[in-house]
Write a structure and sequence with these properties.
The complex is a heterodimer of chains A (421) and B (374). Chain A is of the alpha/beta class. Chain A has one domain (2-420). Helices cover 53% and strands 10% of the residues of chain A. Chain A has 20 helices and 8 strands. In chain A, helix 8 links the parallel strand 3 and strand 4. In chain A, helix 2 packs antiparallel against helix 13 and helix 10 packs parallel to helix 13. Chain A starts with a helix and ends with a helix. With 374 residues, chain B is of the alpha/beta class. Chain B has a domain at 2-159: Rossmann fold (3-Layer(aba) Sandwich). Chain B is built from 15 helices and 8 strands. A 4-stranded parallel sheet of chain B has the order 2-1-3-4, sandwiched between helices. In chain B, helix 7 packs antiparallel against helix 8 (195-205) and helix 7 packs across helix 9 (210-217). Chain B is globular. Classes of the chains: A alpha/beta (421), B alpha/beta (374). Chains A and B meet through helix 8, helix 9, helix 18 and helix 19 of A and helix 5, helix 6 and helix 14 of B.
């Protein structure tokens, strides 16, 4: 760790501390022992779930996937996965799910977030909200959570989109579910949904997403003002605290600082920028800073990635809030076709002037990963930008071999050098 | 058994078509009825039949010319082993005799992604992706009616309008097929027929034109009217799992006590009957009321059904069959185990792949399981 610290070639972003503080407060509040007395409840929700409805109803949303990322960054996810495996969960299933099950099944051992209440893990949920717009795995994961906790589960079903057109009956199916969602929450909270508050929450969401998109767009600058690790940390509020005014304020602060970097031609890394790469997929959480720092030492920076871009999908206002929300929540990167992914990667790689693309092929996220070999070939054909696949996992260090990964990246960098010459 | 059943339409005994699946496709192609290949048991075969198309199940039997691992150009090694085998077969033109390939997604991530990949790799083959809801309520029903209408419209565009379109008649035909299979499954439960025979007949039923199958098996009866005493002493087993499609797994003596299944293309594909009407709404409603697959929402329905089967067939032990790298199978293991523990039913988990690469190990484990139950 010390040697990595000594070789650190990162430029620290001051506003990340504000994000960290905000996240700490968010988790602290979720563990408030008097939460129920204050008329609040806890819902666990998937990262693509319609969170605004929860915020509007005084329900604190918690994200087992985000917890997985925290546990991964704390290098505790592999241990937690092994705990889940010892309880019968297959090593082949999603490592976020295994991390989540492991944290539930090993309350006696410290896990990330234990400093708040000594228990570790996320605060116990009162209800579960599952949107399958990100994958089919979450459905099985949340079914099992419902069985373990014996609490109600609301499923927001978004069948995969098979082309760019969204049919009217598809929207109708989703809009009906939005109404059912409200009824479900009203029943759980024993109070009516205030549509004015819901509208306000959606406006906050919209502003937060707009700001987040603007922050990401600043990555077009050379040198890139943000690297992957910066964005993966900064994305936390747009995932988990979307819909609050605090997140809007937070992103205004981040935007100002990143814009200043651009104005001053200050890059995210302190060495000259040699290679601009696009990152595809979830990061290697258990090796986050070491990985990007090691590459940064070679002048590699990642001005853009598909993962944090997935939260830049905003909603169009037509006057029908539920319908707008339905469209937005179906129009998710992972709910769309392979062709859409190819097109988006091509556009982003060009727009951010990337020299190469790194596809993180993750064995425990099939929805994101399967098809990457085709994406790599087609994107290169379209853009003439080379790419390579590296094998790993977001949370299970047993599926990651640093030597092999770095060898492949070195080969990509050599190819880029050859093309330049 | 199947060799005793002669078909006037086919030039070989039925068993031949299980051993030579790809030759079968070529032979069926000469019947002048366009064949549409399908993957899951959710496929609305009655709609295809009503359009005068031949719905034909896609198996992962290894094509004699396929190069194992050819799929790696398109998908990674951690994709479902079943789909990898199918892609390998496709890459040597194994499914070229099919006029279309139909995916029914909204199910598993691997299948969803492979549906996209298939369109990329085989652009000249009609590939259709019918997306199913995972719920079974009124809104889901309305959605699926529209999906089916859209599907019919695409079939019309590609194959022309079938002037004889008669959904009721197609439902009647498939109901009859299901009744025949239910009857044969009863023979197995009573010990008059081994499970491998039921598996073979079930698989053949998904290959032949439905009329041909019902004509051949309408009067089927088990060869021996009584179960043997040794069978009565053997622990009674039930196999539970997903989209398993290699009947050879069951053709070994270690399965002697196997009397029932809870598999996608076994019991879950023939245990129900559809109301015989022309109403698409009624058709959809009955489809959504079926025992859900591991990928669907209402897990309790599936567990209840399993419990009912265990009681009905007086099951002594359950074998949980999972396919390597199948997420839905893997996820379901834990609740299935818990459920079986609550019922105090012993179970064994067998994980394998369609090519049965670990068959020797499976046989040893099965044998030990049966001994423990005795």
């Amino acid at each position: 760790m010390n040697s990595v610290e000594k070789q650190r070639v990162y430029r620290r972003l001051e506003s990340t501390q504000s994000v960290k503080n905000s996240q700490a407060m968010y988790y602290f509040q979720s563990k408030n022992p008097y939460l129920h007395d204050e008329g609040k409840k806890i819902a666990w929700i998937t990262s693509g779930g319609p969170v605004e409805f929860l915020v509007a109803m005084d329900i604190i949303p918690l994200y087992p996937e985000q917890y997985g990322a925290i546990a991964g960054s704390a290098k505790d996810s592999t241990r937690l996965s092994q705990v889940a495996e010892s309880h019968g969960y297959s090593q082949d299933i999603c490592a976020y799910a295994r991390t989540s099950f492991g944290s539930i099944l090993s309350p006696e051992s410290p896990t990330p977030l234990s400093e708040i209440d000594g228990v570790g893990g996320l605060a116990t949920p009162d209800m579960l909200i599952c949107g399958n717009n990100i994958c089919g795995t979450v459905l099985k994961w949340y079914q099992d959570l419902a069985r373990i906790y014996k609490i109600p589960l609301f499923i927001f079903d978004t069948p995969p989109l098979t082309d760019d057109k969204i049919s009217s009956y598809y929207i109708e199916y989703l809009t009906t579910q939005m109404s059912e969602y409200i009824t479900f929450l009203e029943s759980e909270m024993n109070k009516q949904m205030d549509i004015e508050i819901l509208t306000e929450v959606f406006q906050n969401s919209k502003h937060a997403i707009e700001l987040w998109t603007k922050i990401l767009s600043l990555g077009e600058a050379i040198p890139a003002p943000l690297n992957c690790a910066d964005r993966f940390l900064l994305m936390a509020p747009v995932v988990s605290q979307r819909g609050t005014s605090e997140t809007v304020s937070l992103y205004e602060e981040v935007y100002q600082e990143v814009q200043t970097r651009v104005d001053n031609s200050e890059g995210a890394i302190t060495v000259p920028e040699q290679y601009r790469l696009l990152w595809d997929n979830i990061p290697i959480w258990f090796n986050l800073y070491d990985f990007y720092n090691t590459l940064a030492q070679k002048g590699v920076v990642f001005p853009v990635d598909t993962y944090t871009n997935a939260w830049s999908q905003n909603f169009q206002e037509s006057g029908d809030l539920l319908k707008d929300a339905a469209v937005m929540y179906s129009n998710i990167y992972l709910n769309k076709t392979l062709q859409h992914k190819i097109d988006l990667v091509s556009v982003l790689a060009k727009k951010y002037q990337c020299d190469g693309i790194l596809y993180h092929s993750m064995r425990s996220c099939k929805r994101y990963s399967l098809g990457q070999p085709i994406t790599r070939v087609e994107v290169t054909e379209k853009t003439n930008i080379p790419g390579t696949l590296i094998e790993g996992d977001m949370n299970d260090s047993r599926a990651y071999s640093e030597g092999q990964v770095m060898t492949r990246i070195d080969a990509l960098l050599e190819l880029i050098d050859t093309q330049r010459n | 058994m199947l060799s005793d059943i002669k078909s006037e339409m086919l030039s070989h005994p039925l068993e031949y078509y299980l051993e030579n699946y790809f030759e079968a496709l070529a032979e069926f192609d000469k019947q002048s009825i366009p064949m549409i290949g399908y993957f899951t048991n959710k496929t609305p075969v009655e709609l295809l039949d009503a359009m005068n198309l031949h719905p034909l199940r896609i198996f992962a039997f290894k094509h004699p010319k396929s190069h194992q691992g050819a799929y790696e150009r398109y998908i990674q090694t951690f994709a479902c082993s079943w789909l990898r085998g199918i892609l390998d077969n496709g890459l040597v033109d194994g499914y070229n005799d099919l006029k279309g390939i139909m995916f029914s997604t909204g199910t598993c991530d691997s299948l969803q992604n492979v549906s996209d990949i298939w369109q990329k790799v085989f652009p000249n083959q009609l590939t259709y992706n019918l997306t199913f809801p995972i719920q079974s309520n009124t809104a889901a029903s309305k959605y699926l009616v529209n999906e089916f209408k859209q599907f019919i419209s695409v079939l019309q565009d590609n194959f022309g309008w079938s002037s004889s379109f008669n959904l009721k008649e197609s439902i009647q035909k498939y109901n009859l097929k299901r009744k025949i299979l239910q009857n044969i499954a009863n023979f197995v439960s009573k010990g008059h027929l081994n499970y491998a025979s039921l598996a073979k007949i079930t698989y053949v039923s998904d290959l032949l034109l439905v009329d041909e199958f019902t004509r051949l098996f309408r009067d089927f009866s088990a060869p021996d009217g009584k179960s043997s005493s040794s069978q009565e002493e053997t622990p009674r087993l039930l196999v539970s799992g997903g989209m398993w499609d290699n009947w050879k797994l069951f053709d070994i003596p270690e399965w002697d006590g196997l009397v029932a299944d809870d598999l996608s293309f076994g019991y879950r594909n023939f245990n129900y009957l559809i109301p015989e009407t022309d109403s698409l709404e009624s058709y959809v409603k009955s489809q959504l009321a079926r025992i859900p697959e591991p990928t669907a929402y209402d897990e309790n329905h599936r567990l209840e059904s399993l419990g009912k089967q265990i009681k009905e067939h007086k099951i002594d032990g359950v074998v949980l069959l999972t396919m390597k790298f199948c997420d839905p199978d893997a996820f379901e293991l834990v609740p299935l185990r818990k459920h079986l523990e609550s019922l105090e039913i012993p179970y064994l988990n067998l994980e394998t792949s369609p090519d049965l690469s670990n068959l020797a190990q499976l046989r040893t484990r099965l044998s030990a399981f049966s001994e423990i139950l005795q």
